[in-house]
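Slack export, channel: ligand-projects

TW: morning all. Re-posting the request from yesterday since it got buried. We need the structure predicted with the small molecule present, not the apo form. The ligand is 2-acetamido-2-deoxy-beta-D-glucopyranose; the SMILES is in the block with the sequence. No rush, but it would help planning for next week.
GE: picking it up
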Amino acid sequence: MKTFVASIVAAVAFIPATLAVQANPLPIPQHIEWGHSGPIAIDHHLSFHAPKNAILSDAIKRTTKLIWKEKYEPVVVQGPPANYTPFPTLSQSKRGVKHTLKKIDVVVTDLKADLQAGVDESYTLDIPAGNTGVIKAKTVWGALHALSTLEQLVISDGGSGLEIEEPVSIKDSPKFIHRGVMLDTGRNFLPVEAILRQIDALAWAKLNVFHWHIDDSQSWPIDIKAHPEMTKDAYSKKFTYSHADVKKIISYAKARGVRVIPEIDMPGHSSSGWKQIDPKIVACADSWWSNDVWSLHTAVEPNPGQLDILYPGTYKAIESVYNELSGIFSDDYFHVGFDEVHQGCYNFSSLVRDYFKADPSRDYTDLGQYFIDHALPIFQNKKDRRVIMWEDVITAIGGVTAKHVPKNVIMQTWNNGPNNTKLLTSQGYDVIVSSSDFYYLDCGHGGWVTNDPRYNVNYSPALDASISDAFAADPSTAYSPTTYNYGGAGGSWCAPYKTWQRIYDYDITVGLTAAEAKHVLGGETPLWAEQNDATTVDSKLWPRAAALAESLWSGNRDASGKKRVNQATFRILEFRERLVGRGVGAAPLQPRYCLKHPHACDLMYDQNAVIA
Ligand SMILES: *[C@@H]1O[C@H](CO)[C@@H](O)[C@H](O)[C@H]1NC(C)=O
Ligand SMILES: *[C@@H]1O[C@H](CO)[C@@H](O)[C@H](O)[C@H]1NC(C)=O
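GE: finished. pasting the full C-alpha cell output, ligand included:
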C-alpha cells in the first residue's frame, strides 16, 4: 500500500499547474503561464491593431474567421487532478466572466525579413485580465505562430460565445529552424487542393517546411516550358502541375509561414520526363529491375532509370530544367536528390563501361565525383543557394558515392538512425534528420511489389532455386527465410508502422557533441507515395506529423529533462480533433472513450512508467 501511495505522489509531481484549463495548444509553447482570475470572453468585434502588411492582415482575417467558425469544444479533459484516481473527471467550476477581450495589439519590429532558413520565428502572446491583448514578434513569421497559438487557446464558452479560460502569458520560439514534412508526387499524384490542405495543417502545427519530392522514375508531373515533352510521362494531363499551380502552392504556403523546398532527384530515381528529352540521358530505363538474377539488378524498386553521368546531354538537360524551376521556387534551398544511385544500372551505359575499361583504377566513387563536379556548378546558380542532397552521396555502401562533396551541401540523413547523423555532423555537414527508423510515415503498410512469394507464409527462399542468387547476395534482410514479414512485423522494408509516440520520442541530436549538434538544422517526416495519394494523405500524415512538430518546436522533454510523451498525449488528441473539425481527415488514435476519460486507457497506472 505504501509504494502505491508513493507512486501517486510521484505522478502528481509531473502535472503542470494548469489543471483547470482545457485549452492545450500543440506544440506546447516553450513558456506558458496561466493566471487564476477566471475566464476572459472574446468580444464579437475583437479587433487587431497591426502594422500594415498583407500577409499579416490576411492571417488575422483567417484567425478571426476560424475561431468563430470552429467554436471549439474541448473533448479531452486535461488531467489528472490532484486527487488522482484512475478515472478522473475534472469538475469545471465555471466562474463569472470578469473581462472581455476587445483588442489585440500586434507589434512586429522587422516587417521585411523574408521567409528563409533561420528567420526569427519567436513571439510573445499576452492575454491579461483586461480587455487588451498583445502579440510581439520580431518578424511577420513569428506573428503568424502567435496567431496559430491564439487559435488553440480560444474555446467555446458553452453557449454562443467564445472564451479564453484564464489570463495567459506565452514566450515562445522554436528549438530547431527546420521542421518539415516531405510529400512525394512522383509515385502517385497529389492534386493541388490536397497539397494546400496539408499546408494549412503544417502551419497550425508550426511546421515551417514543405519538402516537395516532385518527380520520381515513375512519373514526371511538372510542366517544364523548355521541354514540354517531359509531361508525356505524367500519369495523365490531369495529373500535372502548371507553373501557375506551383506559384499558387508557394504563395499559399508563404502566407502561412511555410517554406516550399523543391526536390528533383538526380541522378538516381530518374527516368520519366528525362527520357522524353533524349533517351540517351537515361541509363537502364529499359532494363528489368531484376530480383531474380542479381547480376542484372538495376534499381531498388521499379521502374529503373538513372541519368547517365557521362553523357554530355545530361548536363544540358539538367541545366535547363534546374534553371527554370529554380526561377519559380523562391526558397534559397533546393534539393537535388542523389538518393540510392545504383551501380548496376550503369552496366547498361556504354559510356560508363568504356570509362571503367579505359582506366581500371577508376571505381564508382570516381563516377559519383564526375557528377558532383559537373552538376554542382549548375545547382549553385545564386549567391544564397544551398543545395540539399540525400546522405547516400556519402554513405551508400555498394552504391554510387562521391569522394569530395563540399561542406556547404546540406545532407538529409535517413539510414542507421543516430549513427549517420553523427557521421555526417562530425564531418562538418549541416544535416536534416529524417531517419527511416523513426520518421518514415509510409512504413508498415505492407509491401507493394506484386508477384512476391514472400507473402506466402509457407514459402522458404532457401528452397527456391529461382531467387537463390538474390538470397546469396543479401541473406540477412530481404530474403531471409526467417523474416517472412521482411523488415519486421508489417511486411515492408521499413516496418513497423511509425507510431506518433515513436516519432515524438526520437532525439535527433542523441549521442552528438555540442559542436556536432549545432549542425543539426532540424528534421522532416517523409511520406513516400508508393501507397499514398489524395485518399490517404491526410490520415497518413496526421496527426503523426504533429508529434514531430512539437518535438522539433519545444522538444520532447519537460523542464526536468524527462520525456513528456504522456503529457503530449492530451495535446495530440485535442489537436487531432481540431484538424478534423477544420477539414483535415486526421486518423483517430484511440476510442473516443479514452479522450473523455484521461488515463483510463493508459497501460501503466504508474505515471512515471514512460517518462524515463
Ligand atoms: C555489372 O556488370 C559486371 C560485369 O559484367 C557484373 O560483374 C556485375 O554483377 C553487374 N551488376 C552489378 C550490379 O554490378
Ligand atoms: C550504430 O552503431 C552501433 C555501434 O557500431 C551499432 O551497434 C548499431 O547497430 C548501429 N545502429 C544502426 C541503426 O545502424
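GE: first-pass observations. DSSP finds 18 helices and 18 strands in the chain. The two ends are 24 Å apart (CA to CA).
TW: perfect, thank you
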